[in-house]
Amino acid sequence: MHFIYVKVPFVDDNAEFVHRRIEAALDQQLQERRLGAVLGWGASLGEPGRDGKRPLAFHRIDIEVVAVDPARRHLREALSALAAPPGTEMHYRADAAPARDLLTPQGWTLGGTGAQAGTAGADAPGA
């Protein structure tokens, strides 16, 4: 089994939307397709503001998958169909290195690794 986590940015107080719609739908779809399952989820805080308060930054969804590439393909399609906001990230390991796919307003940017995570590749069949 392999591990993927998805980071969905908080936009306009979308926490309830992310939890009820995206997290639940991903879990159901992954299990139906025998690709994996959602292990858990939670909110993460951003950097402290001038007032010292740390705002909610993103919603994290932890996922266990059977195989990384088929799960990535499905997750990209599903997150787009579920209206995940731009800035959504999918983190995984590729060739033993940390990697990330990033949802931009133009679509998914695939396979960035290390400091380059999220900046390389294009959404193409087989990616």
Give structural notes.
The chain is of the alpha+beta class and 127 residues long. It has a single domain (2-116), classed as Alpha-Beta Plaits (2-Layer Sandwich), CATH 3.30.70. It has helices at residues 15-32, 68-81; strands spanning 2-9, 36-45, 56-65, 89-94, 97-104, 107-113. Strands 2-3-1-4-5-6 form a 6-stranded antiparallel beta sheet, covered by helices on one side. A hairpin with a 2-residue loop joins strand 5 (97-104) and strand 6 (107-113). Helix 1 packs across helix 2 (68-81). The protein is globular and about 45 Å long. The model is unreliable at 115-127 (pLDDT under 50).
What's this model, at a glance?
By secondary structure, this protein is α+β, with helices and mostly antiparallel strands. It has helices at residues 15-32, 68-81; strands spanning 2-9, 36-45, 56-65, 89-94, 97-104, 107-113. It has one domain: Alpha-Beta Plaits (2-Layer Sandwich).
